[in-house]
Amino acid sequence: MTVVTVGVHIVDILARPVEHIPEGQDTVLVDQIRLTAAGAAAGTAVDLAKLGHDVVTMGSIGDDELGDFLLMILAKRGVDVSRLVRRPGEQTAASILPIRPDGGRPSFHVPGANLGVTYADLDTETLLRARAIHLGGMDVTFGLGDPAFFELLDTARANGAVVTMDLLSELPDLLGMARAFLPHVDYVLPNESQALLTTGTDDVESAARALLADGPRGVLVTQGEAGSLVVTEDGVRQVPALKTDVADTTGCGDAYCAGFVTGLLHDQDVLTAARWGTAAAARVATGLGSDAGLTDLDSTLALL
Questions:
Q1: Between 283 and which of 109, 125, 131, 294 could a Cys-Cys bridge form, CB atoms 3.0 to 4.6 Å apart?
Q2: Helices (H) and strands (E) in the chain, counts
Q3: Tens digit of pLDDT for each residue in 205-238?
Q4: How would residue 247 be classed by pLDDT, with cut points 50, 70 and 90?
Q5: How far apart are CA 200 and CA 151, in angstroms?
Q6: Residue 50 has pLDDT above 90, yes or no
Q7: Three-point CA angle 167, 73, 75, nearest 5°
Q8: Structural domain spans, the chain
């Protein structure tokens, strides 16, 4: 089942456990350091490939060494990178993530080439052949807020594709701009903070209902250890998180999206697909980085 991810591509450099940033030139020994493909498009693409899909990813990266690494690791994980655009002279987006002992993840981030993605960078024929399209980080890929892209998404949906969208930032102005996509997607999957900031409401259910009113078929708000809130025209349901030993929460949202899309493509209903997303997120939380712990669909569903 061909799935296309569109949007943000990042190289994550992670270390754990980090209890404090040393002063001066002091050194702190840690247990593990990893480099991974991350971001709401790249990280989700890797997870989708691990769950058994043929995955094509689209977006913009730099022509630097980080870009070389990102292409290599995505291809190694089974993702088709032939449609990624490389920007001469620009940096590939990257984050440094010192992971706390409780799995928390403060970050140092450079957005890099993600900010320059435009509709002209996309392979429209591949998008129109996809069974599913996942939009990752439309709040920071400003150039994709293009009427021509909205029209393409509408055409893809009319042809039977499912379109999902995840967000990246927690900046109200950027999140507000991403609402323009909502009439053109089937499901939007923000985290709790993003849902509240996007709508200006003070409780999650009201925020989800406000987003639902903008046009998608469903809103799934991820809430960390509280699970996720699923809101559709049929009502509101809470899907509990699965108990797991959390090593790092990086990429749990991307994994949730990948599991959810996988459920939909296996003809599951929305609530069951949300449970598949919950299981994928639980697997990722057990290791360091956005794809850690996730190996295949069968072992993921075994958690349920």
A1: 294
A2: 10, 14
A3: 999 999 999 999 999 999 999 999 999 999 999 9
A4: confident
A5: 28
A6: yes
A7: 95
A8: 2-19+32-301
φ, ψ of residue 100 to 5 degrees: the values are -70, 160
The secondary structure of 219-262 as a DSSP string is: EEEE-GGG-EEEEETTEEEEEPPPP---S--TTHHHHHHHHHHH
CATH T-level assignment (fold) for domain 2-19+32-301: UDP-N-acetylmuramoyl-L-alanine:D-glutamate ligase (3.40.1190)
Which residue in this structure is represented by tokens 């009427």? 147
Contact yes or no for 38/250 (Cβ under 8 A): yes
Task: Annotate 83-149 with DSSP letters as a single string.
Answer: TEEEETTPPPPEEEEE--TTS----EEE-GGGGG-BGGGS-HHHHHH-SEEEEE-TTT-TBT--HHH
- Residue 1: per-residue pLDDT: 61
Residue 228's CB is within 10 A of a number of other CB atoms, namely: 26
* Cα dihedral across residues 178, 179, 181, 185: positive or negative: positive
Give the residue-averaged pLDDT of 153-179. 95
What is the C-alpha to C-alpha distance for residues 189 and 22, in angstroms, rounded to an integer?
A: 36
Enter the tokens of residue 36: 């991974």
